[in-house]
């Protein structure tokens, strides 16, 4: 029997880390993610019943906030209902990742203020949280998607300060992705499915990212109102 847990509230102790210090208190927000190419950005998920990220920099901030909500909810569930045979070191690793993602989520919410989208409801029905393989493969999917989304953001960020903070965030997300990959298969911290022949991480567009993220969300997210300007 699966243990029920509310992934949108969580219980991680954030006192030992302050994301405002981590990200830089002088940054009002973090503009991240986006699209890997101009052409891809013209195909954006459109769902009239979905929560739309909005426009301009706040749209990108909400895009990031939506993904961080999803990741935080996932790791809160993972730590609250450990899979069978979870080792002490795996517990420590996954707890650290949980804490990072909750910090990211909470920072976005605070930075966006009244312009923040609402709390999203995850749908993890496809994930067997009792299975190590199932959990780690889902974690890999989330982390790889997150890094690809951040790496597709550069040219959409208008504020240089935001770009600096985005670089700090994606660095942490990439560390998560490498660790999860290595837990699945030791030595695979730079997986061929994520890094190309030039040694560069792959990037993804808003449309590509939301199409995948929405499969794990009851509250769908759209970007139809995002006014992309090349």
What would a concise description of this structure say?
With 230 residues, this protein is mostly helical. It has six helices and two strands; from the N terminus they run αβαααααβ.
Integer tally of domains: 1
Q: What portion of the residues fall into strands of 2 or more residues?
A: under 5%
- Average of pLDDT: 80
CATH fold name, please?
Answer: Ferritin
Tell me, what is the CATH class? Mainly Alpha
Question: Architecture, CATH level 2?
Answer: Up-down Bundle
Supply the CATH superfamily name: Ferritin, core subunit, four-helix bundle
Dominant shape: globular
Class derived from helix and strand content: mainly alpha
Task: Provide key terms for this protein.
mainly alpha, 230 residues, Ferritin
Task: Tell me what the structure shows.
The N and C termini lie far apart (51 Å). The chain is mainly α. It is globular. The longest helix is centred in the N-terminal third of the chain and has 25 residues, at 56-80. The chain has one domain (30-112, 122-222): Ferritin (Up-down Bundle). The model is unreliable at 11-43 (pLDDT under 50). It is 47% helix and 2% strand. The chain has a two-stranded parallel ribbon with strand order 1-2. Helix 2 runs antiparallel to helix 4 (132-151) and helix 4 (132-151) runs antiparallel to helix 6 (206-213). The chain has helices at residues 19-23, 56-80, 88-112, 132-151, 160-184, 206-213, and strands at residues 51-52, 221-222.
């Amino acid at each position: 029997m699966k243990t029920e847990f509310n992934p949108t509230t969580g219980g991680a102790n954030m006192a030992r880390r302050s994301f405002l210090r981590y990200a830089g208190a002088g940054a009002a927000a973090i503009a991240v993610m986006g699209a890997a190419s101009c052409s891809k950005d013209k195909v954006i998920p459109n769902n009239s019943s979905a929560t739309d990220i909005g426009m301009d920099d706040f749209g990108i901030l909400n895009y990031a906030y939506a993904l961080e909500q999803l990741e935080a909810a996932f790791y809160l569930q993972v730590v609250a209902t450990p899979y069978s045979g979870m080792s002490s070191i795996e517990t420590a690793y996954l707890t650290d990742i949980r804490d990072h993602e909750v910090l990211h989520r909470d920072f976005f919410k605070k930075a966006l203020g009244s312009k923040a989208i609402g709390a999203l409801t995850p749908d993890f029905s496809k994930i067997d949280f009792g299975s190590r393989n199932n959990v780690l493969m889902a974690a890999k999917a989330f982390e790889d998607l997150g890094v690809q989304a951040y790496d597709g953001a550069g040219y959409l960020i208008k504020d240089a300060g935001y770009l600096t903070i985005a670089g700090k965030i994606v660095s942490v997300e990439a560390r998560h992705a490498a660790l999860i990959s290595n837990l699945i298969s030791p030595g695979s911290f730079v997986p061929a499915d994520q890094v190309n022949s030039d040694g560069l991480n792959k990037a993804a567009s808003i449309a590509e990212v939301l199409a995948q993220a929405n499969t794990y969300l009851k509250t769908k997210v759209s970007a139809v109102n995002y006014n992309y300007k090349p």
